[in-house]
Design a protein that fits this description.
The chain has 276 residues and is α+β, with helices and mostly antiparallel strands. The protein contains eight helices and 13 strands.
Length: 276
């Protein structure tokens, strides 16, 4: 297969794959794939905003699907984004596009189902009345700290938590040591955590909240996370997360005293892959 930039000279060849308004948009880059049989099989349009690549369009000829063209195209775009030192690639798409949902999830993207993607101003969380009360009740007895930066120690902590919560340790490969926090029990074994990935200069993705649900555990985690945000002056951005089991957004509602509808990203599905 071959990737090619769609330009004036060859746009007619790909016209059946990409709308004219996208190919003529000066703010977007359009790319096409020529498959092994010589057919124009797949095309996409990509923009860049705030150091993030944004996939605006991707389409494969129906008769040529499931033959690797879209996977090849997406991988090439990701490699290009890494060469340009972008933070990652994000996609917004209609909830009805179930094939794209599955495709992106299989390609390693964090995919949020419509009405289950939330964006919360960090200031709403850390400066809220409930959080202030919660912080005043911290026992100070728990051992809470950031994720170790040492590779061996980091792997040990992640493996232990992954085993407790029956998760694949590989999903934590891009987690930030600076913003993630871990709570240890009295035997110095990790028991709960907030795993975070950085997104640009201000926003953070909360990838996982791992907790037994106890008030004390949540209190210590939120307290430590609050400390990290203030220490690193990460207070102007937003926390973005998906929530398939309703636990995280329920906690956010209690901490901010606001309804989840205020934070919901509506109407679209959202997928993102951050580059390391």
């Amino acid at each position: 297969m071959e990737l090619t930039r769609i330009e004036k000279e060859n746009e007619e060849y790909f016209s059946h794959l990409c709308p004219d308004e996208l190919m003529n948009d000066e703010d977007l880059m359009t790319f096409g794939v020529i498959d092994d049989e010589g057919y124009a099989s797949c095309a996409c349009a990509v923009g860049v905003s705030e150091n993030m690549g944004s996939l605006k369009w991707i389409y494969t000829v129906p008769d040529l699907r499931e033959k690797g063209s879209a996977s090849f195209l997406l991988k090439e775009i990701e490699e290009l984004g890494q060469e340009l030192e972008l933070d990652g690639l994000q996609v917004q798409f209609r909830a009805s596009a179930e094939d794209l949902d599955d495709f992106l999830a299989d390609s390693g993207y964090l995919v949020g189902i419509d009405s289950q993607v939330y964006s919360v101003p960090i200031s709403d969380l850390i400066y809220g009345r409930v959080v202030e009360e919660l912080l005043s009740k911290r026992s100070g007895d728990a051992h809470v700290c950031g994720l170790p930066t040492d590779t061996e120690k980091k792997h040990k902590v992640i493996t232990a938590l992954a085993e407790i919560y029956e998760l694949d340790p590989a999903i934590f490969s891009d987690i930030s040591s600076q913003y993630s926090v871990i709570c240890f029990d009295e035997n110095n074994k990790p028991e709960s955590a907030i795993f975070v990935t950085e997104y640009g200069d201000e926003d953070l993705f909360v990838n996982y909240l791992l907790s037994d649900g106890s008030v004390s555990s949540i209190c210590e985690l939120i307290g430590a996370f609050n400390d990290v945000l203030i220490k690193n002056e990460r207070t102007e951005g937003r926390l973005i997360f998906t929530d398939r089991d309703d636990k995280s957004i329920t906690l956010i509602e209690r901490l901010t005293e606001n309804d989840r509808d205020e934070f919901r990203i509506p109407g679209w599905m959202y997928a993102v892959k951050l580059f390391v």
